[in-house]
C-alpha cells in the first residue's frame, strides 16, 4: 500500500471507526469541507490569515469561530494574527464607529485585498463573522462579498421552559441541557456550542428557567450557577435574564407578603437585584408570569400587572436591565371567552407601565395553536412596547415526530395587518417599534432545545430554532429563503435536493393544519399532554381546557361564534379586521371556525359545503404526508444516510398520527353533521371507540 | 509539506475539528489503537481474518464486534470469512457442544495457529468474543491466550426505572434513553450501542420500564414499541422483561377486579401473555412491585404475594419466561421497624411460590443506603430462588457529582456470611443457588443510564455499570481487579495512572460513607429528593420517611436499638450473626448504629468515644475528598484532557458537598452530644441554620 493510499485509508477508517455519521450535533455550523474545488480555491486565496485586533472576549470569539469554520470549510489551518496591517488576502476584523451600523450591525466587504468584517462594536463584528461564514457555507462568491445588516428588533430572546430538576415543560428533545446540580463547577462543553449557535443567528438574550419559576434561582446558591452560565454566554454577545417567582419575597425572603406596594417587598427586590448585578454585571432583567395558571402575582394583593412590573423596574434602578411581563393570563374560573381575557386585563393598562417594562404577548389569543389569528393586543397598546412570543417547541404541532417548519407560522403573524395606524400596520411594525416609535423592542421564542444529541429531537426542528433567530434579526426575510439557507448549511448543497427540501419545509405547516385543525378549528387535542386528537373532551378542571368549549359542534354546525351575536371577541380588533373576518363569506377559510358557527350544509367561499370542505381537508392533509415521504425519499442520495433515515422514520410516524387525527375528527364530527363522507373519500376503517382507546393509552400514567 | 507530514496534519485536523475529545460515549468499548507497537504487531499477526460460521444474528454480532474492535485496536481492516478452514493466523468463531461451557460459557484458546473462540452456543461465542477483545484492550499477550469462563448466575438483569414520559425515577444522567413516543419507527443508533455494552459484560436481561409501572406497556400499541427494542437486543443475547402494573386488568382490561384468584383476571393475564409472546417470541417475563409504596397488588383483594406471583407464573404457561416478584415492601402505616417488614411478609411464604417465580431482594433491609447490613431474607428462604437487587444509580450515593465506585458495596453484600447452612453460607452462594441447589438464579442492577452523552452523568459511574455486569457474571472477581480492568479499557493504560485510579476507586465508597453516614448511620438525607443532609427531618408523610426515626439521637446517645431490648430486628438473622452484631464491642463499627443506641461518651472498639469517633470520621471523610482531588490531578498527563477536566470539576463539587454533609451532621448531632469537637478538628465556620437554608433551597419546586 502506498503512503498516499494509506493516507486515505486511515482517514477513512478514522472517520468510519469513530462513527462519524451526521448525528445533528453540529446544527447548521457544520463547516464541512467545500466540495467544489474551484470555489474552495477561491475561498482559500482570501483566507491567508485572520487579523483580530486585541479587544474583548467577543472579538476573540469571532476570530476563533472564523478560524474553526475556515479550517473545516477549506481543509486548511488559517493563522490568527494581531493586526495584519499591510498584508493582503486575509480576513480583517475591524471595530470602527459607524452610526449606520447601530450597536449590533455589520458590514462585510472587500477592501484593499482583504475581506473586512466591520462593526461599530465587538458584537457587530461577531455577527459579521457569522454572516461571512454563512455566506461561504451557502456557496456564495467571496470576490465581491458585500453584506450589510443590522437587526430590526433590539431584544431577541430564547425562553427556556426548563425546570431545576432537569425536566423541560413541553420539551420533546430529552431533558434540560442546563445541569443545575453540577453547576457552577462543571461547565458542559455543550454550553459553548449552544452560545455559538445562538450568536450565529443573532439571538442576544436567553432565559434559562421556566416561566413557572422556581425561587431557587434567586438564591445566592443558584446565582453562582447562573453566573457560571452567563460567563459562557458573554463572549457570544448573549445576556442572561431570569424568570422570577412572584412570591419569592415570601418563599425565600422571609417576608409575610409579596405585595408590590409593600415597602419591605420593594426593598427586598432592590437588594436582590443589586446582589444579582454583583455576580452577573451584564444581567439582562426579569421575565414574569404572574396571576396566570395558578402562578402567584400582584393581583393576590389587589394590585394590577402594572403595579407588579413597575415595582421590578424600580428595583432595576440604574442597572441596564428590563422587565418583561407576560400577558398570557386567564382568570382562574372563566365563564366568558378565553380569547378576550388577556386583552381585557392588559389593554386598559396601556400607558401605565414604567419605561423599562415590555409586555410579552403570544402570537395568538389562545395558546400556540397550529394556526391562530394574531393577538388583538397587537396594535391596541401603542404606549407599551410589546414583545412577540412564539413557540418553537412543538407543543401543539406534533412534538418531535411531525416535520413542521414554523417560519410560515411566525411570518403569518408578523405580516398580519392590525390597521392600528391604518393599512400596513403589521404586527411586525408594532413589534419592531417603528409604528409607535418605541425606543426598545423585543421578540421571544420558546426554545425547542433539549439534551438530545441533535438538540431538537426532530432533526428538521433545528430549522425552527434557526429561522426564528434569523427572523428576529430581520423579519422581512422570507420563509422560503430561510428554509433554503438552513438546508444548504445543514443538509446538502445539491441544488435539486435543496429545492425539494425547501418546498417540503415551506408547505409542511399548512399540511399539519389540514390533518389536525383545518378551517380554524383549535384546541381539540389530547388532554394535558396535548398529544393526539381528543375533540370529544367534554370535561376538565376548567371549561376552557375542554375541546367542546372551542369547536362547539352541534346538530346545526361547527365553530365558535365570536362575532357580535356571540362572544364578540372579534370586536377587539380594528374595524377593518372586523369587517373582513366578521362575514363568513369574506373571512379567510383558515380562520373561519375561529369566529363563526357555520352550518354543516353551508357553502363556503371554496365552493364546497362546510362538511365536505372539512373532511376533504382532513383527507388531503393526511395524504400530503405521503407526498412528504416521497419528496424525502427523493433527496436520499444527497444526504447523510443516518440523518436521512432518521427523518424518514419520523415521517412514517407522522403519517400514522395524521391518520389518527383524520379518523378521530372525521368520525367524531360526523356524529353531529350526520352526513356521509364525500364519495371520493374512503371512510375510516376503524370505529371511533378504537381511536378513543388509543388516546386513552397515551394519557395513562 | 511532505505527503507524510500532510498525512499526520490532516489526521490531526480531522480529529481536532470533529471535536474528538473523549466524550465518554464509547464507554469501555473504546478500541483506541494499541500504543505499544510491538504488541500491536503481535496482535496483528494473529488477526489476518475472522472466521464466522453461518449462524444466528448473535454469531454475526460477535463477528462484527471483533471486526470493529480489531480495526480500532490494530488500525487495520480485518476481513470476515465464512469458515477459514486450513488458514492460520486468524480468529475462528466456533460453536461446538461442550457440557463444561454450559449455555453461555466460552473458551478462547490457540489451536492450530488460530485463536479459537468457542462456545456451546452462539451466545457463548459472543461472550467469548468480548472476552478476547477485553484481553487485548487490557494489553495482555495473545500468543498463549487461554480464557475459560461461564456465568455463576443465570439471569443477569438491568432494571431501568424509566417512565413512559421520558423521565427516569432516581436517574441522574438526563432523561430516558428509551424514546417511547418515537418507537417503533425510530430506532435510535444508541439502542444498539447499549446492547453492545451490556453484552460485553454479560448482562442478558433488561427491563425497560419502571417498577412503578404504567399499564401502557401491556397495550398492543406499546407492545409494538417494546418488540422493536427487543429486535435490537436479540443479536446481543439480551432478553426483554417487563415491569407490570398489578391493576392492569382493571385499567386497560375493562375488568372490575385485579384479584389474582378471579378466573376472569387469570384468563386476562393468560391471553395477554400469549399476545406478548406473539410479538416478542423470546420475551423473558414479568417484574412486579406490588403492595409497596402505594402500588396496587394482590393484598388489595386479601391475597398474598405468592397468590399474585403464582397467578402470573401460571399465565406464562409453557412459555419460557419467569416471574420476578420484588420483596421491597413496607406497610402503608408503619409504627414498627421498617427493617423487619419485608422479612415478616415474605419469609413465611417460603415454599409457597411456583417454580417459575424468583423473589427479588434488595441488598439491605432499608433502601440502598451507602452501607447496609445484608438483607435478613438472604439465607431465610431456602426454598425460593432469591434475586439480589443492587442499585447502580446513585440515589443515596451522591447522584452524578460524587465519585463512588460501587463494586466494594456489592462485594460486601455478596461476601457477607448468612450462616444459613453453617459458616461460609455467603449471600453470593444463596444468590447463585449453590447453597440450596436452585435450578435458577438471578441478580439485578438498577440502571444508572440516561440520555447524557456519556450515559451515566459522572464518567466514573460507568465503572459501576461495568463492574456490576462483571460481578453478575462472576462474583468472585475482586473490586480492585475490576477497577483496574475498567480503567485500562476506559481511561488509560499508563501503569502508574492505572494504579492510582484503581486505588482511588477502591477507596471511594468508604470515603463517601465517612462524610455522610459513618458508623452505621442511615437514612438521614434530604427529604424526597434524597440529596444532601437532613438529619433534623422530624416530620414527613410517614414516620419512617423521617431522619429521626433512624438515628434516634437524644441526650444519651445515637443509633437504632435493634437488639432484643429494642425492635429486635437483629433476631431475624442467624444466631452467629446475632452474636457478633448484638454486642457493641464485637459489632463491626461500620454497622454499629444500625443495631445499637450508643451513649455519646461510650468508648468504641476503635478506642475513641462515640462522639469523637463520629466527628473524626466526618472530618477525615471530607478531607479524603481533597486526597481524591490530588490523586486525580496526578493522573492528568495520562488521560484525555476533556474527560479529566470533567471529573476534576465533579471532585470540586464533591468536596463542597462533603463539607455540607460534615457540617450539617456534626452541628446537628452536637446539639444532643453537648460536647466540643476533639481539639484536632476545626469547628465548622457556618451555623446550622445556614446549612438548613441551603437544604431548603434544593427542596423548592
Give me the secondary-structure topology.
Two copies of one chain form a homodimer.
Chain A: H1 3-17, H2 37-45, E1 50-51, H3 57-74, E2 80-81, E3 91-95, E4 106-111, E5 114-119, H4 122-137, E6 146-149, E7 155-162, H5 189-201, E8 205-209, H6 220-233, E9 239-243, H7 248-251, H8 263-279, E10 285-288, H9 305-316, E11 322-326, H10 338-346, E12 357-362, E13 386-391, H11 407-414, H12 427-431, E14 442-446, H13 462-473, H14 479-490, H15 495-516, H16 548-551, E15 557-558, H17 575-582, H18 592-595, E16 598-599, H19 610-634, H20 641-673, H21 688-697
Parallel strand pairs in A: 1-2, 1-3, 3-5, 7-8, 7-14, 8-9, 9-10, 10-11, 11-12, 12-13, 13-14
Antiparallel strand pairs in A: 4-5, 4-6, 15-16
Describe this structure in words.
- Two copies of one chain form a homodimer.
- Chain A is of the alpha/beta class and 701 residues long.
- The first copy, chain A, has three domains: 31-149, 2-Layer Sandwich (Chitobiase, domain 2), CATH 3.30.379; 155-489, TIM Barrel (Alpha-Beta Barrel); 513-560 and 597-697, Alpha-glucuronidase, C-terminal domain (Alpha-d-glucuronidase, C-terminal Domain, Alpha-Beta Complex).
- Chain A has 21 helices and 16 strands.
- Chain A has helices spanning 3-17, 37-45, 57-74, 122-137, 189-201, 220-233, 248-251, 263-279, 305-316, 338-346, 407-414, 427-431, 462-473, 479-490, 495-516, 548-551, 575-582, 592-595, 610-634, 641-673, 688-697, and strands spanning 50-51, 80-81, 91-95, 106-111, 114-119, 146-149, 155-162, 205-209, 239-243, 285-288, 322-326, 357-362, 386-391, 442-446, 557-558, 598-599.
- In chain A, strands 7-8-9-10-11-12-13-14 form an eight-stranded parallel barrel.
- The N and C termini of chain A lie far apart (60 Å).
- Residues 1-19 of chain A have low confidence and may be disordered.
- Chains A and B meet through helix 1, helix 3 and helix 20 of A and helix 1, helix 3 and helix 20 of B.
- Chains A, B: The active site is at 293 (proton donor), 367 (proton acceptor), 395 (proton acceptor).
- Chains A, B: Residues 27-132 form the Alpha glucuronidase N-terminal domain.
- Chains A, B: Homodimer.
